[in-house]
Amino acid sequence: MNPKIIHIVLGKANPNRMNGVNKVAHNHALHMHKLGYDVEIWGITKTPEAEVLERGFPTKLFRQQSFYRDLDPKLLFNLSKTSKNTIFHIHGAFIPDFYKLSRMLVDMKRKYVYTTHGSFNKVALEKNKWVKKIYIQRYEKTMLKDALKVHFSGQSEYDHIDKIIKLSNKVLIPNGQSFEEVVFDYHKMNRKQNPVFGFCGRLDLYYKGLDLLIDGFAAYVMKGGHGELWMIGDGEDRKTLEDQVKRKGVKDRVNFMGARYGKDKLNRIANMDVFCHPSRSEGSPTAVLEAAALARPLMVSTATNIGQIVEANGCGIHLRQTTAKSIEKACFDFQKLFDDKESESMGLCAQNLVQKEFNWLNISIRLIQIYEGN
């Protein structure tokens, strides 16, 4: 008998937002549903009365609680109606409601898989370091140990967890990308310069390495580089990054486009000549796979956890050291590839890599095998 599968997220699992965790949970659930499994998404949110995305299977929203309050009574009621054949898949770390839920699941003898989504990367743990250390000791360690499996999507986090806690139940499975999600009507956009370097995602200066991207790109421009940089996304660091661009004297070569969604976002990425993701810390960045599916060559750091496979498959440039200097050099290297008309083949290699290694359906099958104890 197939298990019933319930994916649990903080939010509403809307794939058309910048939150990569919600996009991943949506795709896990969607492709498991396509495989014929009974699937639901449970979202814990401050606005449980909001409308939810129509997916062809249920999405239930519950109210997020403060640290010292019990779980939403509506969630507890729904939990009481589940059978022992139900597998819960929890997405995201350092979330008090998830810890409380995990204790309920253990008491009820329900199994759960726990996906950390990059939260235990070395760099990610530096933010609010001492608070996280205390929280891990009091809460996360128990949640990690009691999980059927702890699922990591990136090699760096999979390796680093051993320095915090030794886990016999950890598993490494990357995120995926669906080609159905990148279907749109392409139209050419105006550009000031060639080539177009681009980024799409949350404008988080430190974790996404965007300060380094701007420093490296500015140095490239000042030394005669003739490209421009498009920045898609929004976030609390946007003004800081815009001020950095002004200080560097490259305001006319950097275009902040704001948050974009759906076909508009896809068309803008498709108009880029190289997709840049110089992260200092990641799990498995969904934006990079999306760009690759759109046949965009890639410029990625080791911290994205796909740098080596990108290099090995001729998909782009692997930044072995994430510095402004290495980004400056990569910009010049790519400019030459673009001028010599060699970059298009790199984009096709990126697209083939997604088809071969990051197929959502295959990834969902691997997770289901874990649910079923195989």
Question: Helices, strands, pairings?
Answer:
Layout: E1 4-10, H1 20-34, E2 39-45, E3 59-63, H2 73-80, E4 86-91, H3 96-107, E5 111-115, H4 129-146, E6 149-152, H5 155-160, E7 170-172, E8 196-200, H6 210-222, E9 228-232, H7 238-247, E10 254-258, H8 262-270, E11 274-277, H9 286-293, E12 298-301, H10 307-312, E13 316-319, H11 324-339, H12 343-357, H13 360-371
Parallel strand pairs: 1-2, 1-4, 2-3, 4-5, 5-6, 6-7, 8-9, 8-11, 9-10, 11-12, 12-13
Helix pairs in contact: 1-13, 3-4, 6-11
What would you note in describing this structure?
By secondary structure, the protein is α/β, with parallel strands linked by helices. It has two domains: 4-176 and 359-371, Rossmann fold, CATH 3.40.50; 180-357, Rossmann fold (3-Layer(aba) Sandwich), CATH 3.40.50. It contains 13 helices and 13 strands. It has helices spanning 20-34, 73-80, 96-107, 129-146, 155-160, 210-222, 238-247, 262-270, 286-293, 307-312, 324-339, 343-357, 360-371, and strands spanning 4-10, 39-45, 59-63, 86-91, 111-115, 149-152, 170-172, 196-200, 228-232, 254-258, 274-277, 298-301, 316-319. The chain has a seven-stranded parallel β-sheet, sandwiched between helices. Strands 10-9-8-11-12-13 form a six-stranded parallel β-sheet, with helices on both faces. Helix 1 crosses helix 13 (360-371). The longest helix has 18 residues, at 129-146. The protein is globular, with a radius of gyration of 21 Å. The two termini are 14 Å apart.
